[in-house]
């Protein structure tokens, strides 16, 4: 009996692995079928995450409206998507729209241009984000306002402009790609964390308001989204709890992983996703359940004057 059990174990593991692989492939194909023919608007499509979202949704057969503040880079993304399109599958030529969310005076007009592309919007992916790092007293009020314009006012103006169409058709989904700093504050990122808290608060409220119209509001909160080829630096990071925690927090997630999660969020109509490894997730719970402990750890980090590289 014991020998039989030992022989059966590898077969059992192989069977489980096969079932997981089949499930993942079916989920991937199902995700793509969900967005087939859907009008998907992606802001800051020229960023690392924006490009990956464009790739995933374009492959899935979505009618893309790609927004960005640099026409040459938008055109390069357009060319890249067209060059890798599979002729055996139905894909649509992306439409390009110049949009700088930090210039809130033009967002309303650009929203009309976005609607004119296909006459409606099924899925809006609010992806644009601007980062800044430094002591609060050294960050100018002008820069604070710029961060709020790009990370908060710009996305909500665009959302408000496109929302009536979704409500009238009683269908649609709005995805906010936020940051874990919308849930907890990290030193030397006051303006950035404030803008992310504000955005998360707005879309949490909006979710309840539009539920009766069958409009879904989703938030995806990763840690920092790293560039394609950046790996965590080597060094004595384990010298303190603070440094170890910060290394895990700032290493971040890969754009490909976040884009795939955005697709899953659209397919499953998830309301909230926290895309992070266990340590940042634990920090969110510690901040809620044991705030004094969290504040003590954070204060210890400030005293050590840790300098963390910022991407972008």
From TrEMBL:
Q: Which InterPro entries match?
A: NAD(P)-bd_dom_sf, Sc_DH/Rdtase_CS, SDR_fam, SDR_family_member_7C
GO cellular component terms given for this protein: cytoplasm; membrane
Q: Name one GO molecular function term.
A: oxidoreductase activity, acting on the CH-OH group of donors, NAD or NADP as acceptor
User: Per the record's keyword annotation, is Ribonucleoprotein included, yes or no?
Assistant: no
Which GO terms fall under biological process for this protein?
A: intracellular calcium ion homeostasis
PROSITE patterns in alphabetical order: ADH_SHORT
Pfam families assigned: adh_short
Superkingdom is Eukaryota
Q: Which UniProt keywords are listed?
A: NAD, NADP, Oxidoreductase, Signal
Q: In which family does this protein belong, per the annotation? A: Belongs to the short-chain dehydrogenases/reductases (SDR) family.
Q: Which PANTHER family match?
A: DEHYDROGENASE_REDUCTASE SDR FAMILY MEMBER 7C (PTHR44668:SF2), PTHR44668
What is the name of this protein?
Dehydrogenase/reductase SDR family member 7C
This protein's species is Bos indicus
């Amino acid at each position: 009996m014991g020998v039989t059990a030992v022989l059966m174990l590898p077969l059992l593991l192989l069977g489980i692995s096969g079932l997981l692989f089949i499930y993942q492939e079916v989920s991937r194909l199902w995700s793509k079928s969900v967005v087939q023919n859907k009008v998907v608007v992606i802001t800051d499509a020229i960023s690392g995450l924006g490009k990956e979202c464009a790739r995933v949704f374009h492959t899935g057969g979505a009618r893309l409206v790609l927004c960005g503040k640099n026409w040459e880079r938008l055109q390069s993304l357009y060319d890249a998507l067209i060059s890798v399109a599979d002729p055996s599958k139905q894909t649509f030529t992306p439409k390009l729209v110049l949009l700088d969310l930090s210039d809130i005076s033009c967002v309303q007009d650009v929203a009309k241009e976005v609607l004119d592309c296909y006459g409606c919007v099924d899925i809006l992916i609010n992806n644009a984000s601007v980062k800044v790092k430094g002591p609060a007293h050294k960050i100018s009020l002008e820069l604070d306002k710029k961060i709020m314009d790009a990370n908060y006012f710009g996305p909500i103006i665009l959302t408000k402009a496109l929302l009536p169409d979704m409500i009238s058709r009683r269908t649609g989904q709005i995805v906010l790609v936020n940051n874990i700093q919308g849930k907890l504050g990290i030193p030397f990122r006051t303006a950035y964390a404030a803008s992310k808290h504000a955005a998360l608060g707005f879309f949490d409220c909006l979710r309840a308001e539009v539920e009766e119209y069958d409009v879904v509001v989703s938030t995806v909160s990763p840690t920092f989204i790293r560039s394609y080829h950046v790996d965590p630096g080597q060094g004595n990071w384990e010298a303190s709890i603070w440094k170890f925690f910060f290394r895990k927090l700032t290493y971040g997630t890969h754009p490909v992983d976040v884009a795939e999660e955005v697709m899953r969020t659209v397919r499953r109509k998830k309301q909230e996703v926290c895309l992070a490894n266990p340590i940042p997730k634990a920090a969110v719970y510690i901040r809620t359940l044991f705030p004094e402990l969290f504040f003590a750890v954070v204060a210890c980090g400030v005293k050590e004057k840790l300098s963390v590289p910022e991407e972008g």
